[in-house]
Amino acid sequence: MAGRRPKNPVKQVVLLLLGALALAGCTGSINGGATADRDGVAATGGSGSNGQAGTGGQAGLGGAGGASSSSGEGGAGAAGEGAGGASGSASCTEPVEVGAPVPVRRLTAPQLTATVADVLGREVAFPISDETLIGYRANTTTSFDATSARVMLTTSEQIAITIAPELTSDARCAADCESFLLDELGPQLFRRPLDADTRTRFAALYEQGVATEGQAGGVRWLITGMLQSPRFLYLLEATDDSGKLDAYSIASRLSYALWAGPPDAELLAAAADGELDDAPGIAAAAERMIDDPKLLRGLSDFAGQWLSLEHLDNTAARPDVAALDAETREALKREPVELLAAHIRSDATVADLLLATEITHEPALAEIYGDDVLSTEDGVSQLDPDKRAGLLALPGVLAALSHAEQTSPTLRGRAVLANLLCRPPAPPPANVVPSLPPSVPGASTRERLEAHFSDPTCASCHASMDGIGFAFERFDWLGRSRELDNDRPIDTSASFEIAGDPISVDGAADMARALADRRDVAECVARHFSRFAVGVRETRDFGCTVEALAEAAQGARGLRGMLLAFVTTPWFIEPAPPLEEM
Amino acid sequence: MSTRYGRRLGRRSFLGGASAALAATTLFPWLRAHAQAVGTPKLLLYYTPHGTIWDNWRPTGGETDFTFSHILEPLAAHRDQLVIVDGLEIDEPYDHRVPHTYDLPALFTGSPIDTSSSLFTRDDHGVTFGWNTGTSIDQTIANRLMPMTPHRTIELGTQSGGSHPASRMIYTGPAAPRHPLDHPSLAWDQIFRDASAPVPDTTQVARRTAILDTVIEDLRSVRGSLSASDRIRIDAHATALEEIESTLEPIVSDCELPAEPGDGNLDVEIDRQSALITAAFACGQTRIASLQVTKGDNDGANYPWAGLSTNGHHGWSHDSSDESKNILTGLYRWYAERFAAMLDGMAMIPDGDGTSLLDNTMVVWGSEIGVGWTHDCTNIPFIVAGGRALGVRGGRYIQTTGRHNRLLVSAAHFMGLTDIASYGTMDNAEGPLPGLLSAP
Q1: Which of A171, A319, B149, B178 is 20 to 30 A from A359, alpha carbon to alpha carbon?
Q2: What is the pTM assigned to this prediction?
Q3: Backbone phi, then psi, for B395, in 5-degree steps?
């Protein structure tokens, strides 16, 4: 897969991409039916009643996907896609130059861990809650409560105690410890140089610590304090004199989006040297970051949430997975991330990702793949293309979207709808008593779920979710191929509608082919990455950008092109618009 | 800031009665907080998810001559300390709702979620909403009582999930959740590590004070450039640090401090968290606590030891078949066993004047809905336990009607705040639950 990328085309390509973006921003209404969902807030806020009607009345994908032209449009936005762009219906009537409305974000627990790991070289878990409001961890709405702050205090103390001896004996500390801590470590922890007042404040803490507990004490006091400082805990973004996000803010946006961790010294230096002041410079930095090993950490954070891979860590929900050996468990989670990374780095498209039949050999998963691997050479396994194709057929993904020792066509189908098509199904209606037939002993999972459809209220949504999920039924709860389910033959034919288009497939590979080249799938990937990267849902303004991002993802530079385009969109690099415009 | 430390004293030295406790605290000021907690009313809010199976929960018989149901039968040993409440509803002021999500924040705040806000979009519900609009009753009580305990309140949980309205029930104010400590080892670390030090670390208070002062000053220095809503968040962070700063001096008492527990699955963590809350009450670490077992949206956990082995609790809760009802009944009985084990522990600990901890503690156990597959919340399965010495009239099965806010008012009255006549914006001013507490 590697080697297709030209050697040094960065700036030119980005300029081309930017040009495409500008065009896309002005192409006018993509769908004449789009209503005045000026932004996600208004669109979703105003569409609650539509969503309500949709839950009760509209069947299948129509209700969630907004297939109908009038109220359905609201339904699409309401179905959680903010801009109503889920069905490709974003209405862009003017060029869009605004940034995402990003509040001050408190670092998530994994981001805290990564920041401490990169700067202080210690792997420490932070047992602190993160908001999970948009399907991705992002602390944007609540404050740090006393319970969490107390945990932060004791965790910071423990880190400082562990690290103080090492820092104290560092040669740079021997030379000028205060300067070492405040002018070298400090800017890494805070992701920008300390201003004079801040430096004075923390220097005073250091000196007080030295006076009370000696040099190592001073180091300990200072590290404990800096780890609780808002400058460490939050992404405090600043604007420069021209009203744009300053270079250090951009550096952190880049690093937490691509690495799920802090900027490294090179990225901070790029910020200091003005290299992040324009889109080509930002893209050049992103190119380097994509090729850096830390991309895997970033993608792991993203895909863990996007593909529900973190579900594999939930021992209460998945005792079956918890019972596996650690290496198998890790390989299940690692493989989708590696596949994603390999495709991004080799300029592969979304379609390539969904159709891939060459995957890195994971010895721990060999038993799970069984005969589905035709051959393995030079660490690359060739999958039987009739059985498995692409991201959705990886054991880790299939296992994550299952129940304990039981497949869930519902979870698998829902993931396709919500995370690949951005058309989440409507919920079960409230206060309706479904009259379910008694369970039939010996029935297959599919037969059991189809019985569920005998109740029309349930059928309205389960027909679409499960209908898609049935295509994956030849893979069990661990992603192993199987011929029988509960001793019953398996039927992997699946018929469903997407935005009114009837689709019939048979099996997972067929499903991948049906999805691979769809523009709305490419758009949906861009939407999900955006949520992960900026911590807020898309508004209509992003809906104007998403077309171009999808085009990039399907274009010559593929997923890498999409990421480069994304990190240079106004959405990503411009500050939030003033409140009255939001 | 002054620092005072003490060595442990025999429990007998101040358990003789209020006057003895008073004398002890005059001589040994560090006992002040603990002595204040002995014999005082304590409150525990307790939650388990997804309602119940009414046919197997509801007792038969009358108010005092009732017979325990299959689910509640494990509580029979505490019959005299139990009020089974049948008929209270969470009455929501909206037509469409996201049941598990909207009703967990309403459970102890008595106020609805903010449906005018567009902070959250539920992918699968086509609605937007915000956080809660009210303060939970425990936090209101703490604000009024200002207890001098090392922890103003304690929130523990197990598998309570990420921060989301659907997984948070305790709020210091609108959109201000307090996050439960999810694991016994973490809870012990936060509540008992300092108290367990053989010799109090005299430098620690000075060190923490200097550090927290610096951080608070740093928070103040960044607020100026922020938006109004971000400024509120940063200010609240500073307030949280001030709360910690005001309770840095460890309480030293001679109660039996618990050993550091290990973590595990729900089969052990519920009991361990319950035991830590019991010990926290007994050791004067707090008077107000909550325990949240998993979360409202949605409990995907399996409980194989209770017969629920796959598909998750929430999955079964949407299934009205007999098979599902049997499985869920088994789980809910198991919850009752956990609850009973906690009451056993509280009943064994003396709490002054010949009373037990349970005699002085009101435990309110509720859920976010009444029935899983209908999402009905016109009747929530509530249990009130304990508090006999301070006015709870146990040994009864109360069939009643009305809003659950009345139970929150009763909790406030139990804690001594009898001037609270209604609680939460869903309250229609019916007052406390009639007959739950004896007349003052």
Answers
A1: A319
A2: 0.87
A3: 75, 30
Q: Per-residue confidence of chain B (440 residues) as pLDDT tens digits? A: 332 333 233 333 333 334 444 444 444 344 445 555 678 999 999 999 999 999 999 999 999 999 999 999 999 999 999 999 999 999 888 776 778 888 999 999 999 999 888 777 765 666 788 999 999 999 999 999 988 888 999 999 999 999 999 999 999 999 999 999 999 999 999 999 888 877 777 789 999 999 999 999 999 999 998 999 999 999 999 999 999 998 887 766 667 789 999 999 999 999 999 999 999 999 989 999 999 999 998 899 999 999 999 889 998 998 888 999 999 999 999 999 999 999 999 999 999 889 999 999 999 999 999 998 888 899 999 999 999 999 999 999 999 999 999 999 999 999 999 999 999 999 999 999 999 999 76
User: Out of A141, A403, A430, whose CB is closest to B99?
Assistant: A430
Residues 6+ apart with CB under 8 A from B19: none
Distance, in Å, from the CA atom of B185 to the CA atom of A359, rounded to the nearest integer, reads 41
Q: Do A221 and B236 touch (CB under 8 A)?
A: no
CB contact under 8 A, A404 and B309: yes
Q: CB-based contact (8 Å) between A205 and chain B?
A: yes
Nearest alpha-carbon partner for A550 in A390, A416, A420: A420
Work out the minimum CA distance from B354 to partner chain A, whole angstroms: 33
> With an 8 Å Cβ cutoff, is B189 touching chain A?
yes
**Contact between residue B164 and residue A129 where contact means Cβ atoms under 8 Å apart:** no
Q: Of B47, B51, B22, B50, whose CA–CA distance to B34 is shortest? A: B22
* ipTM value: 0.90
Q: Which residues contact A497 (CB under 8 A, 6 or more apart)?
A: A60, A61, A62, A67, A464, A503
CA B66 to chain centre: 27
Residue A312 in tokens: 């594999």
Per-window interface: B 253-282 vs A, CB < 8 A: 265-266
Smallest Cβ–Cβ distance between A430 and the set B180, B266, B375 belongs to B375
- CB–CB of A41 and B118 under 8 A? yes
Q: Which of B97, B118, B221 lies closest to A45 in CB terms?
A: B118
Rounded to 10°, the helix A247-258/A295-306 angle is 60
Contact A104 B230 (CB under 8 A): yes
d(CA B204, CA B319): 54
> What count of other Cβ atoms lies within 10 Å of the Cβ of residue B97?
23
A221 to chain B nearest CA, in Å? 7
Q: How far apart, in whole angstroms, are the C-alpha atoms of residue A105 and residue A140?
A: 5
SS3 B440: coil
Q: What is the distance in angstroms between the Cα of A209 and the nearest Cα belonging to chain B?
A: 8
CA A182-A184-A189 angle, 5° bins = 75
Interface test with B, best of A49, A133, A455, A538 (most B CBs within 10 A): A133
Residue in B115, B237, B311 to test binding to A, most A beta-carbons within 10 Å: B237
Instruction: List B residues 351-390 in contact with A (Cβ-Cβ < 8 A).
Output: 373-376
Contacts of B302 in chain A (CB under 8 A): 316-317, 319, 404
Scan for tokens 């009985």, then name that residue: B333
CB-based contact, B312 to chain A, within 8 Å: yes
| Structure tokens given for A238 | 């600043």
Using the beta-carbon criterion (under 8 Å), do A316 and B211 form an inter-chain contact? no
**What's A29's DSSP letter?**
E
Q: CA geometry: angle at A205 spanning A204 and A208, to 5°?
A: 85
The pair phi, psi for residue B156, each rounded to 5°, is -120, 160
- B219 CB neighbours in chain A (<8 A) are 230
For chain B, report the end-to-end CA distance as a whole number of angstroms: 40
